[in-house]
Write a structure and sequence with these properties.
- There is one protein chain.
- This protein is an alpha/beta fold.
- The chain has a single domain, classed as TIM Barrel.
- Helix content is 37%, strand content 18%.
- The chain is built from ten helices and ten strands.
- Helix 4 links the parallel strand 3 and strand 4.
- The longest helix has 20 residues.
């Protein structure tokens, strides 16, 4: 839920997240039909209502549904869910799952977060939310901060990135803030995770954006939605208006590495939606 998620982030006092992860390799060589996704993953924020009470149990259920990659977020016990880095890495390995990334609070305990993520085998650390900015000077300060944090994360052996919502794709003083961030951050230290729901909901073309800027994006979030007036209502995959055949084909063609499914609101129990989303990903041909 767009607004509920923002309220959650404000109440928690941390910049946590949104998202699902999907690894892309030579699918034909793996025996999967060309244009399909053999491996796909989940942004664990999608199961925030049930995950904190039983992290290992919920992760095990998700692995059985077919998710092979997880992206975490800063929950009540941190992004490793109360486990030591080597413990969660071993546990997920036993389930056939790799945690490749996490959303985290870049303003809190940065060095500690970097160390934990590296020891757990993660590759990416992502800022999930900064909120709308009032001026382009504010966005300049954000870009400068991203460059600084990205340099520090890079020195720690990982990659730093930013996950967008709709606001960074809405024009401000004749500019698109997301495009400003892309132009004013160092590609050596800052990459991006494209939320395919929120760019489309903002009225921008995901296909056009990926054709122009695709090389800066290494991960993306896959989620569907419908609109009632101006209100965005998320749905299970395949039940909304996003044309994922075209968008994900373009993402693959432009070098996207991980495809991350996230669902922020659901019509029923979250694990029922996670099962439906997994089945959608297994059948999707782009």
């Amino acid at each position: 839920m767009h607004l509920n998620r923002r309220n959650f982030l404000k109440k928690a006092g941390v910049l946590t997240t949104s998202a699902f992860a999907l690894s892309q390799t030579d699918l034909t060589a793996l025996g999967a039909p060309s244009g399909t996704f053999k491996d796909f993953g989940l942004q664990l924020y999608s199961v925030r209502d049930v995950l904190p009470g039983d992290p290992k149990g919920i992760m095990t259920q998700l692995a059985k549904m077919g998710y092979t990659i997880f992206e975490s977020y800063g929950g009540p016990k941190g992004f490793l869910w109360g486990m030591e880095p080597k413990e969660i890495k071993s546990f997920l390995g036993d389930q056939g799952v790799k945690m490749v990334s996490t959303h985290f609070d870049m303003n809190k305990d940065l060095e500690k977060s970097i160390d934990m993520a590296r020891e757990a085998g993660l590759s990416y650390m992502l800022c999930p939310y900064i909120g709308p900015q009032k001026t382009m000077d504010d966005w300049k300060r954000i870009a400068d901060q991203f460059n600084q944090v990205g340099e520090q994360v890079n020195k720690g052996g990982l990659k730093f990135g930013y996950h967008n919502h709709d606001y960074s794709f809405k024009p401000l003083n004749g500019q698109i803030p997301q495009e400003y961030l892309l132009a004013n951050t160092d590609p050596r230290n800052v990459m991006f995770e494209l939320d395919l729901c929120w760019i489309e909901a903002a009225g921008q073309s995901a296909v056009g954006h990926l054709k122009k800027y695709g090389k800066r994006y290494e991960l993306c979030h896959i989620k569907d939605y419908n609109k009632t007036g101006e209100k965005v209502i998320q749905s299970d995959l395949g039940k909304g208006v996003v044309n994922y055949k075209e968008i994900l084909r373009t993402a693959k063609d432009n070098g996207m590495k991980y495809f991350l499914v996230e669902q922020e609101e659901y019509p029923g129990p979250p694990m029922v939606s996670m099962k439906a989303d997994a089945e959608y990903m297994k059948k999707l041909v782009v």
